[in-house]
Amino acid sequence: MRAIFLGTGGFHPNERRHTACVLLPEMGVAFDAGTSVFRLAERMPACDLQIFLSHAHLDHICGLTYLLVPLLQNELRSCRVHGSPATLDAVCEHLFSPPVFPVLPRFEFVPLAERVALPGGTLTWTPLMHPGGSVGYRIDRDDGRSLAYITDAYEDGSYVDFIRGVDVLIHECNFPDSLAQWCQSTGHSHTSQVARLANTAGVGRLYLTHIDPRRPDDDPIDLAAARAIFPATDLAEDLLEIEW
Length: 244
What we know:
alpha/beta, Metallo-beta-lactamase, Chain A, 14 strands
C-alpha cells in the first residue's frame, strides 16, 4: 500500500510545502486536511473518502472547504470526517460558519470511535500534548504491517507504547534542535527528540513532517542529527510516495 504526502508544512504554506495531509489511497483514508487538499480529489477518483483530523487548527482543516466542488461533481462519492467532538464542533461552528463559508460540503461528521474498521485494517488513536488538544493515529493492517501519524505534538513520553513497533512512523518535526526551547510552549517537537522517540519505540522507518514554513531550504531540521540517532530517518517532501 502507498502513503502520499500531499502536504508536509506547518502553520502556513510556503513555496515548497503546503500544510498537512497524508493520503492512503488504497484504504480511502486521509490524515488531516490542510492547504494541500487541493491535490486530493485527482488522486482518489470516484472514491468513498474518510478524513481523520488530528485537531482543529486552521493549517489542518482549511482544506475541507476545497472538497465542496469535488463532492458536488461526484469526483468523490462521499466523505466522512472523523475527529474528537471538540474538533468537529470547531469545524462546524467556525470553519463552516455562514459568514465564513456558507455552503456546507456533503460531509458526514463522525465522532472518533475507540477503534475504526478500515478496508484491510484497523485504526486506533491516542491523545497528544498540544495547545487545544490533538490526537495521533495508528493503523494496523490485517497483513501485519503498521503505520502511525503523529502531529501536532510535544513528545512527552506518553505515547511511546502507542507507536511501538510500527513499520512507518510519520511524525512532526517543527523545529531543529537549535530552537528546542520553543517546543513545550508551542506543543511541537524537535529533531533529536523525535529521533530518540523512534529509536526507543523500535519503529521501522521515520518520516519527518510539519516543517517550520520559515525554512523552505533543503535541510530545515538537520537530517544528519536525526540519522545519528536513528539512521532510518527521512525528511518528507510534498508529493513523496512511499510503500508501507
